[in-house]
């Protein structure tokens, strides 16, 4: 793994992922005016040795002081492949393209922009921007010119602009509203157009965007405050689409459905702003089931590891170790509710096996199915499933369980 540091220790470190042992470092620990390493990218082999090399966005300490450069380092030993000074006081992010790469630049008060470079680091184009560029990501070839393209997150007005990797021309631009500095994350293609989707931290709302034309697939308000971290998870609901975790300045962590943005799970870290959820990250499964776990980290230094859910379901838990004698569906509680309620049900032991097919669905008053809470094989036990109604209108809803020949329906009320 590679780490870029700042604050009087402005180096790049390569560490063993297995042991954390230092492999090499780049920079001089005695020099404190080189400028922070604000961005790293490890996506491309620049020296053709079969190893992906490291691009570093090295900022400065003001005009004339520091590196102000894009630096390409050999991943094996940290040797410099190229070092190209940029025309700016600060740099924040860098990424590769199939013909080179791109890095942002800025001055206090402007001008701001993005420089494209070739495989030797030499500048080949410039794209001016209205304010600082916080993050760059390499995209697929959006404009079919045989060169990979670039997504950029710009300024405090939350603008995502995609650029041609070959000449820096804008392909499309989308404003997401008032933002903090944000990071772009590339997600699976759910629109089926063959191009990865974009989700970013920074804005007040979480939006999933198709990268080819910039269309918004869905937007989720969450709590209406700035999103500080976002990451893709595994498929927790069993619909074939991976979920998304996000952290906000209101100190909340959210898991949302990947195909709709519907909130599946919420956790509060404490008082707003003081406990801002700065970072979130998906993990591999720790407990050995099909769902992956995830981390949330707050501004106060608290880090929590969350289960992805038993058998891949967020919001369902095995509430008792006692094996029920028969199927039962209980009245939700609380009822009426706003916005979350719990639905308890019992699954008895099946003489023919240890697991049984169970489906628990929510309907509106017109009989339209609006959500599937459970649709899987469950071991015998008592369970609780959470229904999150933030994205639904007030009114009467029905929940129905089907398990073998057992079918039962109950009514509940969402009151906002």
Unreliable spans are none
Find the CATH topology of the largest domain. Answer: Methylamine Dehydrogenase, Chain H
Radius of gyration: 25 Å
Name given to the CATH architecture of the largest domain: 7 Propeller
Strand order of the largest sheet: 4-5-6-7
Q: Which structural class fits the helix and strand makeup? A: mainly beta
Largest sheet: 4 strands, antiparallel
- The chain-level mean pLDDT equals 90
Distance between the termini: 47 Å
Q: What do these coordinates show?
A:
The structure is a single chain. With 416 residues, the protein is mostly beta strands. The protein folds into 3 domains: 1-175, Methylamine Dehydrogenase, Chain H, CATH 2.130.10.10; 183-313, 7 Propeller (Methylamine Dehydrogenase, Chain H); 316-414, Immunoglobulin-like (Sandwich), CATH 2.60.40. The chain is built from no helices and 34 strands. The protein has strands at residues 2-4, 12-15, 22-26, 37-44, 53-60, 66-73, 80-85, 94-97, 100-106, 112-118, 123-129, 133-138, 150-154, 159-163, 170-175, 184-187, 197-200, 206-210, 216-220, 227-232, 244-248, 252-256, 263-268, 277-282, 294-298, 303-306, 316-320, 328-329, 340-347, 356-363, 369-378, 381-388, 395-403, 406-414. The strands form 9 sheets. Strands 4-5-6-7 form a 4-stranded antiparallel sheet, with no helix packed on it. The radius of gyration is 25 Å and the shape is elongated. The mean pLDDT is 90.
């Amino acid at each position: 793994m590679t780490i870029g540091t700042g604050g009087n220790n402005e180096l790049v470190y390569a560490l063993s992922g297995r042991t954390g042992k230092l492999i090499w470092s780049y920079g001089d620990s005695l020099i404190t005016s080189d400028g922070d390493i604000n961005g790293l990218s490890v996506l491309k082999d620049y020296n053709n040795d079969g190893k992906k090399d490291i691009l570093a966005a090295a900022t400065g300490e003001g005009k004339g002081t520091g590196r102000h450069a894009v630096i390409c380092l050999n991943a094996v030993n940290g040797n410099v492949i190229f070092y190209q000074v940029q025309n700016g006081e600060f740099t924040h992010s860098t990424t590769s393209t199939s013909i080179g790469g791109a890095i942002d630049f800025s001055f206090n008060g402007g001008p701001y922009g993005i420089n494209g470079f070739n495989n030797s680091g030499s500048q080949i184009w410039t794209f001016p921007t209205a304010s600082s560029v916080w993050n760059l990501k390499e995209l697929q070839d959006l404009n079919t010119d045989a060169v990979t393209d670039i997504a950029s997150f710009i300024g405090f007005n939350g603008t995502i602009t995609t650029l041609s990797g070959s000449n820096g021309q804008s392909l499309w631009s989308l404003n997401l509203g008032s933002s903090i500095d944000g990071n772009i994350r590339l997600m699976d293609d759910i629109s089926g157009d063959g191009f990865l989707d974009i989700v970013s931290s920074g804005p007040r709302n979480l939006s999933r965007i198709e990268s080819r034309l910039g269309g918004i697939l869905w937007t989720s308000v969450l709590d209406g405050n700035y999103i500080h971290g976002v990451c893709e998870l595994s498929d927790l609901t069993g619909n074939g689409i991976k979920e998304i975790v996000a952290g906000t300045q209101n100190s909340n962590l959210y898991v949302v459905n990947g195909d709709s943005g519907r909130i599946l799970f919420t956790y509060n870290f404490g008082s707003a702003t003081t406990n801002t959820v700065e970072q979130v990250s998906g993990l591999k499964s720790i407990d050995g089931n099909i769902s992956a776990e995830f981390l949330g980290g707050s501004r106060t230094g608290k880090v929590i590891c969350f289960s992805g859910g038993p058998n891949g379901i967020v919001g369902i838990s095995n509430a008792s170790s006692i094996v029920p004698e028969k199927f039962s569906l209980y009245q939700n509680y609380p009822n009426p509710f706003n916005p979350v309620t719990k639905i308890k049900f019992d699954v008895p032991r099946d003489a023919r096996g240890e697991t049984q097919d169970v489906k628990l669905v929510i309907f509106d008053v017109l009989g339209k199915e609006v959500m599937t809470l459970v649709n899987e094989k469950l071991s015998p036990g008592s369970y609780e499933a959470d229904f999150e109604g933030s994205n639904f209108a007030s009114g009467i809803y029905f929940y129905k369980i089907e398990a073998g020949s057992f079918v039962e329906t109950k009514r509940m009320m969402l009151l906002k």
